[in-house]
Structures are given as structure tokens and as C-alpha cells.
């Protein structure tokens, strides 16, 4: 024989009756107990989650090395320029539209003006394209910052509902009545964090990937136009003794 029988919480706490728990509201009814504002918060969180998932999938399919940095493009353009075939270099870039081809085309367009113009044009193209890519993934960061604020708004509304029940019953509100507002507050908070955490994590991953690709594009552009830079350096060294 057990020294203690099962504990009856309903008998231990007189104002917590089993009938009140069994008569508790359903999940969605509690979520939407905040009225039209509560419904809008849930809809907004769902919209943000769908948008975040769409952006992650889109970036996985587009922010890829093979799309931004086609294999062999840099070497083909380099060989064409070394052979003096500028038209073939331009054709190679047009046939492979990408981050790298955009940068190389800007450099090729300034060949007639010398190395300094080419270098400046390449740097401007790199800055423009990298800014475009960063703007593209910036929406994930925005969602990651907005979602917790939306969840916090739901938390505040849930607490208002809980204290409203206390005020309406003049302090005699039962635990289930108070739990409705608190439950709503916790659910919206969790919902906001569930949307925010993956969004911020994905933003960090894509940002690092873009940083790596931009650095690689800069290296390849320097490699492609290095013969022109060497010629410019040789010409400058040859002109110095003549001037002296």
C-alpha cells in the first residue's frame, strides 16, 4: 500500500475546477481571442514566414558560384585579350551573363583609355554588383528584425487580455481565464522567434557567401587584366629614363 495516494490538484486548489479545464477554449480560439488585432498579428507572422522561406529558396537557387562566376570565363577573356581579340572577349562575356561578365565587360570597355581607367571601371562594377546582391539578401535581415517586434506586440496584447479578465471579474478570475491571455502572449512570442531566428541565420550565411564571391570576382578580374597592367608598368619605366 502506497503511503500517499495520487495528488488531486483540483481538490488542493478550490478555485481551479476540473470542469473549467475541460471547458477550455481550442487552440485557434485562444490565439484569436485578442480580437481583430490578434488575428492580424498571426496573419502577419504567417506572411513573414512564407516570405522568408521564399527568399531563402530563391537565394539558394540564384546566389551560386556557377551562376555568378561561370567556369572558364575569366581564362577565355584573358586569352582573348592577350591575343588582341577584344571582340571575342566581349562575345564571351555576352554569352555568359553573370556577376563576373558584368565586371569584365566594364573593364574591357575602358581598354582604349589605359590601365588606370580599366582599374577604376572594374572597381566601380564590383561595388555596384556587390551592392545589388547585398540589397537582395537584406530583406531576410529586415524580416529577422521585424518578426520579434510583431511577436512582442502579440505578447503585450495577450497580457492586456489577461489583466482585462482580472478586471472584469474584480480579481476573481480563474486560472484558465488568465491562462488564455498568457497563452496567446507566449504563442505570438514563440511565433516571432521561429520566423526571426532562421531568417537572421540565412542572412548571415548568404552574406558570407556573397563576400567570398565578390573577393573571388575581384581576384579573377585582376588576373584577366594583369597583362595590361604589366604593359602599363613597363611603359612607365621606359618613359622615366627618357624624361630624365
TrEMBL record:
GO terms for cellular component: plasma membrane. It is found in: Cell membrane; Membrane. The keyword Cell cycle does not apply. InterPro entries: ExbB/TolQ_transport, MotA_ExbB_proton_chnl. It is a multi-pass membrane protein. Keywords: Cell membrane, Membrane, Protein transport, Transmembrane, Transmembrane helix, Transport. The chain crosses the membrane at residues 30-57, 139-162, 182-206. Residues 117-216 form the MotA/TolQ/ExbB proton channel domain. GO terms for biological process: protein import. Belongs to the exbB/tolQ family. This is Biopolymer transport protein ExbB.
Amino acid at each position: 500500500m502506497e503511503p500517499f495516494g495520487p495528488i488531486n490538484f483540483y481538490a488542493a486548489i478550490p478555485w481551479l475546477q476540473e470542469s473549467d479545464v475541460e471547458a477550455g477554449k481550442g487552440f485557434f480560439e485562444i490565439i484569436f481571442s485578442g480580437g481583430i488585432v490578434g488575428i492580424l498579428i498571426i496573419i502577419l507572422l504567417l506572411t513573414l514566414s512564407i516570405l522568408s522561406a521564399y527568399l531563402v529558396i530563391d537565394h539558394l537557387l540564384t546566389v551560386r558560384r556557377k551562376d555568378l562566376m561561370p567556369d572558364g570565363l575569366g581564362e577565355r577573356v584573358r586569352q582573348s585579350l592577350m591575343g588582341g581579340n577584344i571582340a571575342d572577349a566581349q562575345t564571351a562575356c555576352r554569352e555568359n551573363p553573370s556577376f563576373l561578365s558584368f565586371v569584365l565587360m566594364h573593364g574591357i570597355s575602358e581598354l582604349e583609355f589605359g590601365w588606370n581607367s580599366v582599374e577604376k571601371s572594374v572597381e566601380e562594377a564590383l561595388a555596384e554588383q556587390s551592392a545589388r546582391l547585398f540589397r537582395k539578401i537584406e530583406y531576410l535581415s529586415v524580416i529577422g528584425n521585424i518578426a520579434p517586434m510583431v511577436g512582442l506586440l502579440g505578447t503585450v496584447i495577450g497580457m492586456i487580455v489577461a489583466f482585462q479578465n482580472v478586471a472584469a471579474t474584480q480579481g476573481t478570475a480563474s486560472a484558465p481565464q488568465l491562462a488564455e491571455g498568457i497563452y496567446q502572449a507566449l504563442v505570438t512570442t514563440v511565433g516571432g522567434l521561429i520566423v526571426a531566428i532562421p531568417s537572421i541565420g540565412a542572412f548571415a550565411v548568404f552574406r558570407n557567401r556573397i563576400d567570398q564571391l565578390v573577393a573571388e570576382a575581384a581576384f579573377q578580374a585582376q588576373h584577366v587584366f594583369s597583362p595590361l597592367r604589366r604593359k602599363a608598368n613597363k611603359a612607365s619605366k621606359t618613359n622615366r629614363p627618357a624624361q630624365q
